[in-house]
Design a protein that fits this description.
A hairpin with a 4-residue loop joins strand 1 and strand 2. By secondary structure, the protein is of the alpha+beta class. The N and C termini lie far apart (71 Å). 18% of the residues lie in helices and 28% in strands. Strands 2-1-4-3 form a 4-stranded mixed β-sheet, with no helix packed on it.
Length: 87
Amino acid sequence: MQQDKHPEYRPVVFRDRAAGYAFLTRSTANSEQTIEWDDGETYPVIDVEISSESHPFYTGKARTVDSEGRVARFERRYGGAGSDGPA
């Protein structure tokens, strides 16, 4: 008889400790730790280093790249747009 090769798909809590944020979703991830959720049920909990609550892109704290400065630096180094370079 063939065994089921698929892992168990069940509710799991992912917790972002840096942001103090947790969310309940479904996953096949395993954990020995558990947490009691708002609904009174106990679920496995997975601690993550970063989530949408703490990631700079999603929080709006991302560092913006100065693309105009990059273009100016390129033109200084390799010549401007109107330079007489080889065609």
